[in-house]
Every structure is written in structure tokens, then in C-alpha cells.
Amino acid sequence: MTIALIVLNVLLFGWQSLNPEFTLGWSVIPKEIVTGQDLVEPQIVQGPQGAIEVPQAPGPALIYFTIFSAMFMHGGLGHIGGNMLYLWIFGDNVEHRFGPMKFLLFYLFSGIAATVAQVALGPDSVIPNLGASGAISGVMGAYLVLFPKNRVNSIFLFHMVSVPAVVVLGMWIAMQLFSGWGTVGQNSQTGGVAYAAHIGGFVAGVVAGLGARLMMKKEPENRSYEFYTIKG
User: Fold this and answer.
1) Nearest CA-CA partner of 164 in 174, 147, 151, 173
2) Domain enclosing residue 203, as ranges
3) Transmembrane region positions (predicted)?
4) Mean pLDDT of the chain
């Protein structure tokens, strides 16, 4: 299922590159989710440099479907590349523990939780939101609970170090919380990184991971996987 999700993300990214209006229309727009109405005309918002026109495009007949479509869409090669790398690294272990179909449902659940968190932060925002990072954050949250002692190889100050997953993922969520707090109220109308979605998805993953762990008698296996990050 992890491979299937990666393939689906890549295929949809290819479709986006050929259809720019599809990206606008099928992304999550918080105001559309709150009102249930599809915005098709450009919207004017106030940014740091003054008024900004935000283009819009027709979306699906049932506008709430964008909650699902947006979690398979991306804004660029770097965006999809980073997300798919994280999904590849952490997804297979969590999928093995949940099983393919339960993993798919969990992935979608995490994506929904991420969207709810982002919409709650800026319900009047007309900025398109897209990306798999919310759902993948859920996968990372579950990984933290299920495989906390797994060794993860990271590049730190140009040296390879092997650290427990709990340290790597703990640092990651700490950075999301710190960065998210610093941007509260700044990007709901002007765009930026959706830290609230990352945090919401991660929390959903932790909850699901705890639930799965309670139902399991066997302790998670300790397996090592390579994960490369560059710090400093």
C-alpha cells in the first residue's frame, strides 16, 4: 500500500503539471470547507505588501471531496520529493504493523485530521492548501509510538550518526511546534508551510499508534533503517 500511495501521488503530480486549474480547484480552501461553497472567482486578501489577488478555479461538485484530493497533490518537485521520501522511510513499517487496508484508512484519517487542524486555524482563508505532509505526519506519529527504539541514520554536522527514532521524530515535531507558534496568524491569508496540518496529522498518528499498541501483545521489532537529514 505504501508503494501504491507513492505511485498515486506521483501520477497526480504529473496530472497537475498539465492542468494548473485542477490544482487550484481541487486543493483544500478553508473557507470553502467552512461554508460548503465552491469559490470560482479571484479573491482579494491583504498581505504584507498590500492587497493580493488569489486565483480560484471550479472544484468538485461536492466541495468536501477536496479534503481527500488535496492530500495527494503537491506544489513542486521539492515538495513531492521530500514527502515521498518520508513516506517511503516510515510507511512500510507502519503498514506492516497495521496491514494494508487498515494502513490506508489510517493514512486517510491522518490526512483528514491534518485538514481539520489547518482549517480550524484559519477558517476564513482562501489560500489553497495541498500536500501529503499531513497524512505522512500521521505515519511518523504512529512510527514514533510503535518503533521508538529503531535506529535511524542521520547526517549531523557532516558526520553520520545513528540515533533512536524517538529522538529524530521528537526533534521534528518540536520544530513544527516552535515554527508553527511563530507563524500563527501570519500565513492563513498569505500562504506558507501548513504547520497546523503537520501537528494535527502527527497527533492523529500518535493516537492511532497508541491504540494499535494497546491491542498488540507482541512488542514492536527493533529494525534499523536509513534516514538522512542535514543539520548545520
Assistant:
1) 151
2) 2-231
3) 62-91, 103-121, 127-147, 154-175, 195-215
4) 84
